[in-house]
Every structure is written in structure tokens, then in C-alpha cells.
Amino acid sequence: MNRRISRTVSAAAALAVAAAVAACSSGGGTSSQSASDNPLTGTAPKGVTLTLWHNAADPKAVTDLYKAYEKYSGNTISLVDIPPGSFPDTVQSKWATGARPDILEWHGNLTDFLALNGTQNMVDLTSLPFVKKEGSLAQFSGSDNGKTYAVTLGFPGVSGIFYNKQVLAKAGLQPPKSYADLAADCTTLKAKVPGVSPIFQAGGSGFPPQILSSWNYLAEYNKNGAYDDSILSKKATLNAANGPFVAGLTAYQSLKNSGCFNKDATTATWEQSMKDLLAGTTAMVPQISDSVALLDGDANGDTAKVDATIGFVGVSATSPVADFQPTPLGTFYVPKTGNTDKERAAVQFINFATGAGYANYVKEAGTVPTLSGATLPAMQGLWQDIYNAYKAGATLTFTSRIPGIGDIPAGEVLAGQLSPQAGADKLQTEYLQAAAAAGQ
Amino acid sequence: MTVQSTPAGAVQSDRPGGAGDETGRGGLAGRAGGAGLRRVFRRGHHLWFALPSIALVLVFFAGPFAANCVFAFLNWTGYSGTIRWTGLGNFRLVNELGILRHAIVVTVVYAITSMVVQNVVSLPLATALQQTNRVNSVFRSIFFIPVLISPLAAGYIWAAVLSPQGPFNAFVSALVPGGFHYSWLGNNVSSLITVAAIDAWKWTGLVTLVYIAGLSRIPRVVIEAATIDGANAWRRFWSIKFPLLAPSFTFNVVVTLVGALSAFDVIMSTTGGGPGDATTVLNIAVYGQYGHGYFGTASALSLVVSLLAIGTAVPLMAWLRRREVPV
């Protein structure tokens, strides 16, 4: 009987494995389409329900866009809320099971696009009218090999230094322009404004230490994607001892060792950093432009107070260069689901969002439009600072195009667990892992 | 009762009047088909009761475990639709990334700390609360409440309590001069010990109940005889109660250790594996790999968790059961 049970168990296990492998395949999608099942042509249906996986942090302008489309089309959008804190993990986990939404809100970075095997699994939107209006944005957001698979409505997230104007003025300082400035300002702030953390690090939120340790530092090296190209072409490596990545982590470690960071740097959160900045208990916070919403919230919507208190500037290794990357909020893909009717309706949503519904979206969003032809809306002063930093030669964040390096080991350097060189070695291995997986 | 299947198909029992006796009678009387069916039912009826459990184990353990064993050797990622056999490649990769060894060390330290804290706290607690009366019932309930709390909720609550400006440090500050603002979850060593202690706090009530059950099973006459013979409370505990508690001890040590080897939720909600990777146990590393679309390496790490749990539990249980004595 034991043998019989053993055989039964083996058979069941083999079945389970076979079923699981079949179910969990990353999915190749449909490789060729006839005219009748091309979602880019034909009439979109009415009365269908479209599933949309979206980031629960979507601003009201985006959620109102969903409602406007429902009214416009007669279709229904069924939103699947994905918490922002676990957004990439949750989407990739669901994706791995073979589940597909009709519309996907997702990162525009190439590295994130590759992680979903986008060229196989997404509808190519290159021929849609919005692509021309997006201009260069369509070449690096939701794009691979010259094809565009996503529309990017949200203005890119710009990284730089948010600073408290009063605190810097009290110390007699001007906004920093380089990492040397940051180190010097730190010394001055500690001497002249004791009790204020010169630079806030929010290690408890995961990503914030990456900004100061590498994103900002490397901004001036990635003009026209030069640094990314050198890594992707294997002409340089992330862990080159004399390379800018190791130099960035070293500068970061130096700031930490000089006592420039808040005492709870390893556990503090992004939300706390913006509260402290507005309250003037910290002088500078390296962050992305999405933080403006937090600041406005902390000021109970008093944007004038925020504008009077907070400024923004791009800071790179030796020059005031900001960096940017496509935001997932308002970046939409049409996954291949095999249901041509729903794919057509999803394409209709893209056309609506970039056509009939776009003007209202821009007006309500109050940020810089990403499509040409739209009027620049009235923006709060802090957004104007950010836009100025963006226009002044901001470069694409170097992690956007290099696969597998979403987690810069800045947290480990901050916690004293890794040296800058060891951190760079680890990241280089992670890049090679992803590059091999992506067939690069 | 041990039941063994023989080549002849007969069932033997070591208990007089057990299944062997009945089967023997059935065999002699087995002339008609109905009698044969009854005989088969009598032989295997106990297996029918086990069927739901067998089905659950097959569907929710054996199947996924077998799948995991295969996935661990495939180069399955979200980057490609092609899945190929990669041998030990996934294990080599997580080792090269410095994840494997570090996560094993962190997992083992976490599990041992949690197991030791749970048992060291629970055993005296069970001794104190052994007698069933109203006061003890109230305290048993109070200590059991953390078991009922969601691990995620418990983690979030403790993260807030232990923050540098949180109530715990405020309490310590009231006792020591100069204020106290230690970041319990921000230091490499204290964060690991602290999250293990939180895990222990969460499950101590359950472990205590098992010890209370074990203590209640010890015959009162043995304790009374020892008392009459002049054994003090300490001697009665070490020489009588502790040896006779061996079955409970075995259960608690193995369950708490294996449970802690599979830890995830409490760590995720307190530190998320940080600071850096100070509390990145194997399951947190699995989550990290899976979240990045590396399903093969995630499966490899997951297999390591299973092997670690089996490799620890089986010899530990065998060793601990050797010291058990019949009551």
C-alpha cells in the first residue's frame, strides 16, 4: 500500500508541477495578429467591463480620468487597487501567475518594462496619435527598440534636493549645487543651527537612500544616456573602482560618517522626512517631485505656505543637474489578453486619455503636460522650481534603462553593512543576473 | 498502537483484541462477497477518516513542494517567456549575490533566539499559572491574546512602540537621566534580536498552554510523595516535573524553532528585512527575488527554507524524544 500511495503522490506531484509550469509561464502572448483581431483597428465595443490594475496612490486627476472615460464610452472600468508600498512586487507576483488586466498602470522605465517581458506581453501602441505628441518621452518611457508600448500622462518624477528656505537662510547658506556643497553646508548647519538634521535619510521607506547615494550623484554622468550606454554596452561596469557609481556611494558614506544625517536614518520614513522639512527640524531632503503632494498634505493644503518654506534644486556630483524618470502614476499599457474586443476598448481608453479627456486631466492635475499642444496650467511655486530644474538639463535617472538595478544597496551602506565597493560589486552581479534573464 | 501491513495483506496489531483479531475472524468467515466487503472496510476503515487530511496534504503541501523542487532548478523569470533547466545555477547565483549564506545565518539566529525566548518565558509562566482558578484563567487569557492578533498588526504596533521617539523609549527615559532614544529596529544586532523577541511575544501564550497541559498531566501523587520525602519546590521541578514534561518540551522546541525558520510577516511589518539586510531571513529574501521577477531563484531559496526546516526538525525531534519518559 505504501508503494501505491507513493506512486499516487508522485503522479499527483508530477501533475501539479506540469500544471504549475504551464500556468506560471511568463506568457509569450500572441505573436502575430490578423486584421480582424488587431486591437488598433476596428470599432471599440460598448458595455464591456475593463479591469485596470492601478497604483492606489493615483492622484484625483487620474481617477477622474477613469470616470470620464466611463461616461464617454459607456464601458465600465473595474479598478484593482494596488498599494503603493508594494506596487512593483504585487504587480509582478500577479503577472507571474498569468493574470492580466485589460489596462495596466505601470512604470515607464525600460528595466520595469523588461521585467514583465513587455515586448511579448503588451500591445504595440507606436502607431497611435499620442506618440508624436509625446516627443522624446515616448522614446524612453514604456519604450523598447524604438517601439512605444505605453502612454505617459504623468510628468516624470524629478529627483533633487528639497530644502527649507528659512533654515538655510538662518545658517547663511545658498542652496547646494554639488556634493562638495552638501558636505560644506552640513558642517555649517551643524555649527550654526544645532538641533537641525542637515540632511534627512529615510531608510525605513526603502528607496530614499538610493536618491542621494547614486541617482543624484550620477545625474551629470548620464547626459544623453552616456553612462547607461557605457554599462549596457559592457564598456564600463558599475563596480569599477574609479567609476562614478562607487564614487557616489563613497560620497554618501562620507556624509553619513560626518554625522550629516538624522539619528534615525535607518528606520525613518519618507513621510516623516517631509514633515520634518516643513517643520524646519531638517534642512534638506533628497527626494523625488512626487513629495510635493506630501508637503501640501502636511500643510493642510496651504500651498502658499509650502511655496514660501520649501525650495527645490538639482544637485549632482560637481554641478546642479537633476535627474528624472517616468512616473508609474498615469503611465498606461494595454496587455495582450487575447480578448480583441476588450483590447480595442483599452486602446480606446488610451486615445481618450490623450485626446478628448486630456485637457481636463491637465487642468485638474496642475502639473506640466507631457503631450504637446496643451496649455501649461497654473502651477504652485514649488512645482515651478521643479520644472525649472527639469528644463535646465535634467538627465534620465541611470537606473531607468539598466535592468535589475532597482535596489541600489544604499540601505546596506547606510547601515554600515557594506562598503561602497562591496555594494557596487553586488549591484553589478544583480545587473548581470537581469541582463542574462532578459537575453542581453 | 502500531499497525503494519504484511505481504499477505493481513493486518497485525500489538494490541490484544485489536484489528488483527477481528481480521482473523473475518478471514475465517469470509465466504460470501458481502463478508469480503465488510472485511475490506474493517481493514481500511481508519484510512477513510484520514482521507481529508491526506487530500489536504497532497493539494496544499505535496503538490506545491514538488513544484517548488522543480522550479528551483529552472531559469524562470518574468523577463522571458522561455523556461529552461538550469541545474544548480539558481543556487550558485544567490550565493554569488551574497544572499544565500547571509540569509541562512540570519534565519538561524532569528529562529534560535525566538525559540529560546518563547520557551524560557513560557515554562516559568506555565508553572505559575498551572492551577486552574479564576485568577489564573484571567491571566492565561491575557497572555493568549497576542496569539490571536494578526502578525502584521502586531509588527506595525511594535514598530511604533519601539521607534526612537516611541512610548517604550519614553518609558525608559522616565527612568534614566538624559533621555533615551535608542533605535531598536535601526541597529544591525538589536533589530534582529528585537524582531525575534516580538515573534516570541506573539506565540508565548500558545507555548505556555502546551506546558500547562503537560504539567497537568503529571500525577499529583508523584509530586505529593516527593514533597513528603522532603523535596523542595526547586527539586520537585527539576527532578520530577521537568523530566516528565519532556513530550511538551519536545513539541514546543520543535514547533517554535521550525515556525521561526519560516518567519516572514512579523519581520515584514517591523523592519521589512532592514536596516540594510540585517533582518533579511530566507523568506524575506524569497519575497525580494520573487518581487523582482526572479521566480527560479526565489524557488531555490524557498527550497532551502524547506530543507532547513526538515533538516532541523527531524533530528531534533528524534533526539528530544529519546529523553522522554512514560508517565
* Record field, number of beta strands of chain B: 2
Give the uncertain stretches of chain A in residue-range form. 1-32
Distance N terminus to C terminus of chain B? 17 Å
Instruction: Provide the CATH superfamily of the largest domain in chain B.
Output: MetI-like
Find the CATH topology of the largest domain in chain B: MetI-like fold
Strand arrangement within the widest β-sheet of chain B reads 1-2
Order of helices and strands of chain B: EEHHHHHHHHHHHHHH
Distance between the termini of chain A: 52 Å
Question: Would you write up a description of this structure?
Answer:
The complex is a heterodimer of chains A (440) and B (327). Chain A is 45% helix and 12% strand. With 440 residues, chain A is of the alpha/beta class. Chain B has 2 domains: 3-71, no CATH class; 89-322, MetI-like fold (Orthogonal Bundle). Chain B is built from 14 helices and 2 strands, in the order E-E-H-H-H-H-H-H-H-H-H-H-H-H-H-H. Chain B has helices at residues 19-29, 33-71, 89-96, 99-128, 134-148, 151-161, 167-175, 188-216, 220-228, 233-244, 246-261, 265-270, 282-291, 295-322; strands spanning 3-5, 11-13. In chain B, helix 1 crosses helix 2 and helix 8 runs antiparallel to helix 11. Chain B is flat and about 75 Å long. The model of chain B is unreliable at 1-30 (pLDDT under 50). Chains A and B meet through helix 1, helix 3, helix 19 and helix 20 of A and helix 2 and helix 13 of B.
Set out the fold topology.
The complex is a heterodimer of chains A (440) and B (327).
Chain A (H helix, E strand, L loop, with lengths): L1 H23 L24 E7 L4 H14 L2 E7 L4 H10 L6 E3 L4 H6 L2 H4 L8 H5 L2 H4 L2 E2 L2 E2 L1 E3 L4 E8 H6 L8 H14 L4 E3 L8 H8 L10 H7 L11 H14 L12 H10 L2 E7 L2 H8 L4 H7 E4 L9 E3 L5 E3 L6 H15 L3 H8 L15 H11 L3 E2 L13 H5 L5 H18 L3
Helix pairs in contact in A: 2-16, 2-17, 12-20, 13-14
Chain B lengths: L2 E3 L5 E3 L5 H11 L3 H39 L17 H8 L2 H30 L5 H15 L2 H11 L5 H9 L12 H29 L3 H9 L4 H12 L1 H16 L3 H6 L11 H10 L3 H28 L5
Antiparallel strand pairs in B: 1-2
